[in-house]
Amino acid sequence: MKLAVWLSGIVDFERAEEILDKVGQISVSDSSIWRQVQTWGEAFRAIAERECIRANVLPGRWGEPSRQRASKGRMGVAMDGSMVHILGEGWKELKVGSVFDVEQRLTVDRETGDREELAQAVNNSYVGYLGGPETFGQMVWAEAQRRGWEEASATEALGDGAPWIWNLVQEHFYDSYQMVDWYHGTEHLAAIARWLKGDGTPAAKRWRKVQETVLFEGHALRLALHLSALAEERPALAADLEREAGYFRNHQGRMRYQQMREDGWAIGSGMVESAAKQFKARFTGPGMRWSRSGATRLIPVRAAIMSHRFEETWKTAYNSPQN
Hints:
Elements: H1 2-8, H2 13-24, H3 30-56, E1 74-86, E2 90-108, E3 115-130, H4 133-146, E4 154-159, H5 163-172, E5 177-180, H6 182-197, H7 202-216, H8 220-233, H9 238-250, H10 257-262, H11 270-283, H12 292-306, H13 310-318
Parallel strand pairs: 1-4, 4-5
Antiparallel strand pairs: 1-2, 2-3
C-alpha cells in the first residue's frame, strides 16, 4: 500500500503498476492502486486539515502586534498558482505555497560570471490546494507555523501581482517584508518591449535591458511614469501601457530589488514556480482529467513527497507504533 501510494504521487497509475511489477515483483492493477490513493490520500488530507485547524485557532493570534523574534534565522514564504483540468468544471487553479529558509550561498552571476554570496531559498516545503484563497492561506500559515515561523529572526513574502496573494500576505504574514518576484517583473518588461520595438529585435532587447536596470535599482514609480508617457504617444497601445503602468505603480513598495538583495533577501520566487511545475507534471499529463475528489486526495500525497515528509505523514496516517 505504501509503495503504491508513494509511486502514485510521482507517476501516473499505469506507470506505478508497471514499476511495482518490474522492480518490486508486486502484481497490482492500476485500478487497485487508484483505490489505495483514494483511501490514504484522504488520510493525508485529514492530517493536513488537523494541522491547519491547530495553527489557525491559537488564541490571540489575529491582529496581535509582532512579537520579539528569536534568532532562528531568516525564513520566507511564496505563493503561486497552476491549472488542473477538473471533470465537469474545466481548468481550475491549483494554489501552491512554499515555506523556506533564507541562507547566503556562493552563487555565480549569470551575466558577469563573478562569484558572490547571495540569498537563496533552501529547505523548501510545500502545500497545494484546489479551492479558494481563504482555506489555502490557512494551510500556508499552518506549514509556516510547523516550520517555526514565529521564531525566525525576520521573514519575507514573495509572489507575483495577483491580488489574492497579497491579501493573504496581509492577513497571515503582515509583518514580513513583501517582494514581487523579480523575474515576474521582468516578464512584464519583456512583453512591453515586444509591443514597442518588435519581437526579438535588438531594439527590444536594448529597451528591456535599460528598463530592467531602472527597476532593479528600485525606481518602479519612474518606470510607471515613463509607460504613461508612452501611452499618450501610442494610442493603439495606450490601454496596455496604462495597465502595465498601474502594475508597477501599485507594486512599487514591493520592488526594492537592489536594496533587498543587498540586505540579504531572496528576490525571486523560483522555489514556488518550480513547485507549481512539479504539481503540473503530475496532474496535467497527456489526456489527464481529474474528478475533484480524486485530485484533492492526491494533492497532499504529492506535496508530502515534494516536502520530503512522505514517511512521516504515512506513519501518522497508518498510526504505526514508534520503534
